[in-house]
Amino acid sequence: MKNLIIIGSDVYARRVIKCIEALIKSGEEISIKGILDNNEKNNVKGYKILDKIDNANLYNDEDTSFIIAIKNNKTRQEIADKFQEFDYYTVIHPKTHIGENVSIGKGSIIMDEVNIKDNTKIGNHVIINHGCIIDENVIVEDYVNLLQSSSLGKLVKLDSLTSIGKDVLVIPKICIGKKSIIKNSSIVIEDVGDNCIMEGTPAKIIKKL
Fold first, then answer.
1. How many Å apart are CA 71 and CA 17, to the nearest integer?
2. Using an 8 Å Cβ cutoff, are 147 and 169 in contact?
3. How far is residue 84's CA from residue 78's CA, in Å, rounded to a whole number?
4. Residue 36: enclosing H or E segment and its boundaries?
């Protein structure tokens, strides 16, 4: 039995708890030990907040794995860098379709009704929300976040720390640079550089970070 500790207590923690409960129901031998967060809540969905995130080392043992359930990409990276020695659990909802020759990195969270097609690489600490479609031969680097019902065409590459909004479509063979943000309901039809905020159909740069 693997004990899981969730880092974070916002809406993403609630979604991750639902995924884990679905995995437990499907027969996976895991349990939720509790939550680490810096707020004053006592529990989230009935699971106890054990301590502050800075005290995570107190809970690191051979039977425990951690999940960083925080939306902000940079914050996930900072926590993972601080606690590099931890074992991070990869959450894949049982109602997700994973194709052949797909790799998914440590600590990543794949929610329900996601479709990841063949020969795709998902990095570490990536969050892919409900209903996303990722076509063949896609590369998603570390600390990326895809919101609900977004679609990536074949041979798309998302660089690290990129954020994709809800209902976004990225057409095939597009590269999106590091730390860029694609706003909800946008359609990306050309390559995007680093540190760009894009919006529209087709998406245009509205701001440089």
1. 14
2. no
3. 10
4. strand 30-36
- pTM, two decimals, is 0.96
> How big is the CA angle at 115 (ends 6 and 137), to the nearest 5 degrees?
105
- Which helix H or strand E contains 57, and what residues bound it? none
Mean pLDDT in residue range 5-9: 96
Calpha distance 69→10 (Å, rounded): 8
pLDDT at residue number 43? 87
Q: What confidence category does residue 209 fall into, taking pLDDT thresholds of 50, 70 and 90?
A: confident
Q: Residue 28 is which amino acid?
A: E
pLDDT in tens, 113-158: 999 999 999 999 999 999 999 999 999 999 999 999 999 999 999 9
Partners of residue 92 on adjacent β-strands:
110
What is the reported pLDDT for 168? 98
Distance CA 123, CA 191 (A): 20
Tokens of 188: 């990306």
Residue 100 exposed, middle or buried by CB count within 10 Å (0-12, 13-18, 19+): exposed
Tokens of 106: 């440590």
CA separation, residue 7 to residues 17, 49, 74, 78, 90 (Å): 11, 9, 14, 12, 13
* Contact by Cβ (8 Å): 56, 7: yes
**What is the rounded distance in angstroms from the CA atom of residue 184 to the CA atom of residue 124?**
23
| Of residues 116, 179, 173, 172, the one with CA closest to residue 142 | 179
